[in-house]
């Protein structure tokens, strides 16, 4: 049995309070019972312009079926700019850890899963979790914001040659300072403190080039961070589960690409043993 709750927090309780009335929310998909479990926090894609329903509840239910609690974050998007989405996801993982006893979450087994621009957000937390920007006077230390694993599905990563310009324009504005662009070009920010990652992409992706995943994986390799990387030869951007459940047309159904979820669950289960 799954208990679905919508958790809305008071923006005034942490840095980066919004002035336009928008409040992020978390939809929780909690498996009932007393057993403590790992959890997955899901960041849908949408180019930092919206959050895609195709990469929200269907993903949560797949992780539920595998025995994980799941949470969907509806984070700030344009016209709201950086650092607000990063503040949202850091606040979300903090909420999970602060409610771990009530929700039966294993606090050292929390993954952040993102799709496309949501992948950029997930990876941003993976590389910037100890940034003082995320902390406030109530914090007990930066570790409360650190994900234990990253799941990156056709992620936006780089602001360079292979950037998805729409995502970066929405996040940083059309003419960001070079230092800010480098800060949010995540292949430049990987360090020994970055958590392990499961990454998948398609070679044919013309919206977010496969180089984004390759650059992030190469950076992880340089820093000795374990990862699992799958590059499928065919398939467009935005496949979600690549099944009929999440498809809007037949081109988004691909049984071969759909293996990513089973592979991801195997990887996550081994990591969280």
Automatic annotation (TrEMBL):
<keyword id="KW-0378">Hydrolase</keyword>
<feature type="domain" description="BD-FAE-like">
    <location>
        <begin position="35"/>
        <end position="219"/>
    </location>
</feature>
<dbReference type="Pfam" id="PF20434">
    <property type="entry name" value="BD-FAE"/>
</dbReference>
<dbReference type="GO" id="GO:0016787">
    <property type="term" value="F:hydrolase activity"/>
</dbReference>
<dbReference type="InterPro" id="IPR049492">
    <property type="entry name" value="BD-FAE-like_dom"/>
</dbReference>
<protein>
    <submittedName>
        <fullName>Alpha/beta hydrolase</fullName>
    </submittedName>
</protein>
<dbReference type="InterPro" id="IPR029058">
    <property type="entry name" value="AB_hydrolase_fold"/>
</dbReference>
<dbReference type="InterPro" id="IPR050300">
    <property type="entry name" value="GDXG_lipolytic_enzyme"/>
</dbReference>
């Amino acid at each position: 049995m799954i208990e679905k709750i919508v958790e809305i927090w008071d923006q005034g309780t942490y840095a980066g309070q919004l002035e336009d009335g928008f409040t992020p929310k978390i939809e929780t998909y909690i498996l009932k019972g007393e057993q403590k479990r790992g959890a997955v926090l899901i960041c849908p894609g949408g180019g930092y312009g919206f959050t895609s329903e195709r990469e929200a509840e269907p993903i949560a239910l797949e992780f539920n079926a595998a025995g994980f609690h799941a949470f969907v974050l509806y984070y700030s998007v344009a016209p709201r700019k950086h650092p607000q989405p990063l503040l949202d996801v850091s606040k979300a993982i903090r909420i999970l850890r602060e409610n771990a006893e009530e929700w039966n979450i294993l606090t050292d087994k929390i993954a952040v899963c993102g799709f496309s621009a949501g992948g950029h957000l997930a990876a941003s937390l993976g590389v910037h979790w100890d940034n003082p920007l995320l902390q406030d006077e109530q914090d007990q230390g930066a570790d409360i914001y650190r994900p234990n694993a990253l799941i990156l599905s056709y992620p936006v990563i780089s602001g360079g040659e292979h950037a998805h310009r729409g995502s970066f324009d929405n996040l940083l504005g059309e003419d960001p300072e070079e230092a800010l662009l480098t800060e949010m070009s995540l292949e430049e920010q990987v360090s020994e403190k970055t958590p392990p990652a499961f990454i998948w992409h398609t070679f044919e992706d013309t919206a977010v080039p496969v180089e984004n995943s390759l650059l992030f994986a190469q950076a992880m390799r340089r820093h000795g961070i374990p990862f699992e990387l799958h590059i499928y030869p065919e398939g467009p951007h935005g496949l979600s589960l690549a099944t009929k459940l999440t498809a809007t047309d037949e081109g988004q159904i691909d049984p071969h690409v759909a293996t990513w979820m089973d592979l991801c669950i195997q990887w996550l289960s081994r990591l969280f043993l």
